[in-house]
Amino acid sequence: MLFRSPEFSPLNPSDSLSFVVTNSNARVPVLLVGWHGPDMRNDIKNTVVADVFSFILDQKSSKFQQSLIDSGYAIGANIGYQSAKYVGPITLQFVPNPAKFNDAFKELQKQIDQFDATDYFTDEQLATSKIKLANQEKYGEEITSQYVHTLSFWWASASFDYYFNYINEIKKVTRQDIIDYVDKYIKGKPCVKGLLLNQG
């Protein structure tokens, strides 16, 4: 008997959820936001676009980092995408500066609202993101024990063809691809938000 994983139903706006968890061990506030992202069966192109966009936001020169970290609003901020056969999650992790708590969240939302702006990132940042991703993949092939796990992951999550063509697909990603990805999966889309706080 062949086992089939259950399908994840798309989130409706009414499914959006926000909650707060308090813990005395929490040294700083931590916000996690999750969206349903592209999967390996139905939207392969955007699985690659998601990686490129995440690497753009991770650059110290990005508007995202400068507006949140360099400005002092946050201690940490990043967005990641996990490749998966069934609904790859997009996750934002945000550690606001406790001294600028309310303003930090306002600035975070302001940045998310600009994700699909045509000038939110530069051509150089786009090119750098592609180079970093390609280099990461190449370096990963140099350690045999790690490479075996990489191959098995892609065999289970997508296909060997996907993995071996990955760098070529990275090179094809355009500014418009990223804008379309943000509009399809992030901006204004249902999500789940969890905030960890110290009771004090």
Distance between the termini: 54 Å
Overall geometry: globular
Which consecutive residue ranges, at least 5 long each, have pLDDT under 50? none
- SSE pattern: EEHHEEHHHHHHE
Main β-sheet, in a few words? 5 strands, mixed
Q: Which strands sit side by side, in order, in the main sheet?
A: 1-5-2-4-3
Strand content: 15-25%
Mean pLDDT: 90
Helix content: 40-55%
Cα Rg: 18 Å
The number of helical elements comes to 8
* Total strand segments: 5
* Structural category: alpha+beta
Task: Please characterize this protein's 3D structure.
This protein is α+β, with helices and mostly antiparallel strands and 200 residues long. The protein is built from eight helices and five strands. It has helices spanning 44-58, 63-70, 101-113, 123-140, 144-157, 160-164, 166-172, 175-185; strands spanning 17-22, 30-36, 74-81, 89-96, 192-197. A five-stranded mixed sheet has the order 1-5-2-4-3.
Describe the structure in brief.
The protein has helices spanning 44-58, 63-70, 101-113, 123-140, 144-157, 160-164, 166-172, 175-185; strands at 17-22, 30-36, 74-81, 89-96, 192-197. With 200 residues, it is an alpha+beta fold.
